[in-house]
Amino acid sequence: MDQILQWQAETGSDPEWIRILDFLRNGGSYSELEQIDQTKYNWIVVSTVRITENRFRQMQMGVIDGGDLGIGGGTSNAAWFRSTDFLEWWASVDRTQSWAPDFLEFFETEILGLR
Known about the structure:
Low-confidence stretches: none
Mean pLDDT: 84
Number of helices: 6
Distance between the termini: 32 Å
Largest sheet: none
Radius of gyration: 14 Å
């Protein structure tokens, strides 16, 4: 099974994650989440972005085709990555300390559409 699809299946069945997403999708914001829920959101989101970074590295090495990584390809999470709650989370701290510059450029340009 595809990494991202497997991760979505695992997190998608977690009642706490579903509750957090329901809150966010119904008008709540990341900053309004309780600290424990922000921690869970952070853990799941960072893991999901790391999977995307891993696929980016696989593309660089020629293991996967670049077309499998762009919007609608290896980032089946593209719509979620562009959601208000994700973008609020992304903007909440300086991401340059957590991600390599080449991946940040790719992710913020090709996936998030911020650059």
